[in-house]
From TrEMBL:
<protein>
    <recommendedName>
        <fullName>(5-formylfuran-3-yl)methyl phosphate synthase</fullName>
        <ecNumber>4.2.3.153</ecNumber>
    </recommendedName>
</protein>
<keyword id="KW-0456">Lyase</keyword>
<comment type="function">
    <text>Catalyzes the formation of 4-(hydroxymethyl)-2-furancarboxaldehyde phosphate (4-HFC-P) from two molecules of glyceraldehyde-3-P (GA-3-P).</text>
</comment>
<dbReference type="Pfam" id="PF04476">
    <property type="entry name" value="4HFCP_synth"/>
</dbReference>
<feature type="active site" description="Schiff-base intermediate with substrate">
    <location>
        <position position="35"/>
    </location>
</feature>
<dbReference type="InterPro" id="IPR007565">
    <property type="entry name" value="4HFCP_synth"/>
</dbReference>
<feature type="active site" description="Proton acceptor">
    <location>
        <position position="96"/>
    </location>
</feature>
<keyword id="KW-0704">Schiff base</keyword>
<dbReference type="GO" id="GO:0016829">
    <property type="term" value="F:lyase activity"/>
</dbReference>
């Protein structure tokens, strides 16, 4: 199955609080991503806060889509499955799971543990561009019934996505994911100037946090910066 190729990528915006979530809903984003940046690349919200966020999103008419990260965990089957189940139980429709550097021989066992769950919940695999990701693993996620796959960076102090992987490699990643019918995203300290070269690869979405904040990704979301990224992605202003 080949996935739909979007004319322009959508905007995934990571938000750290319910207030930021309301701001992002007002500005308008395609995927509202519930993440706690002060707890790592894939820092998780507390379950009760996720339940409240789902209620806020539904009350707003459930625009676009809603994702949440499960936290930064090692590649351990039970641990990842438990974290994914805990997140999905809150009602969040898209659950993002990081596949961190480590014992890659553990990947088959992790996917076996997640496969039954992936049939009930839309799971997004997050690979890290700064950890020499094995892009040949993309078909394995599709075979495990994942809904999507994205690239991000784990070490936010070590440069953005394009500092770690050349455009040609990113193009191969997007094409491989699309060929498997997976929702495909790119992220990792992206700046407004990265939008044009990455949009040309036609992923389904580009993900942002740091560029949306005045003083780094753990500071507050700035609605003006968010609107500028939204408008650049939509082609209303040039990068
Ligand atoms: O999922 C997207 C990330 O939250 C991106 O965060 P970042 O732009 O700070 O790397």
């Amino acid at each position: 199955m080949t996935a739909h190729v979007p004319a322009r990528p959508g905007l995934l915006a990571s938000v750290a609080t319910l207030d930021e979530m309301r701001t992002a809903l007002a500005v308008g984003v395609d995927i509202l991503d519930l993440k706690n940046p002060s707890e790592g690349a894939l820092g998780a919200w507390a379950p009760q806060a996720l339940v409240e966020a789902v209620a806020v999103w539904r009350a707003a008419g459930a625009p676009g889509n809603l994702s949440a990260t499960v936290g930064d965990h090692p590649l351990e089957p039970d641990l990842l499955r438990t974290a994914a189940e805990r997140t999905a139980a809150t009602g969040v429709p898209l659950v993002k799971i990081g596949f961190a550097l480590g014992d890659t021989t553990a990947l088959p066992a992790v996917l076996d543990a997640l496969r039954p769950f992936a049939r009930e919940t839309r799971l997004i695999a997050v690979l890290f561009a700064d950890q020499a990701p094995d892009l040949a693993a993309v078909p394995l996620f599709a075979a495990a019934d994942f809904h999507g796959v994205m690239l991000d960076t784990a070490d936010k102090a070590a440069g953005g996505l394009l500092a770690h992987l050349p455009v040609e490699t990113l193009a191969r990643f997007v094409a491989a994911a699309r060929a498997e019918g997976l929702l495909t995203g790119l992220a990792g300290s992206l700046k407004v100037a990265d939008i044009a070269p990455l949009a040309a690869l036609r992923p389904h979405y580009l993900g942002f946090r740091g560029a949306l904040c005045a003083e780094g990704r753990t500071s507050a979301l700035d609605p003006l910066r968010l609107a500028a990224v939204r408008d650049t992605l939509a082609g209303r202003i040039l990068a």
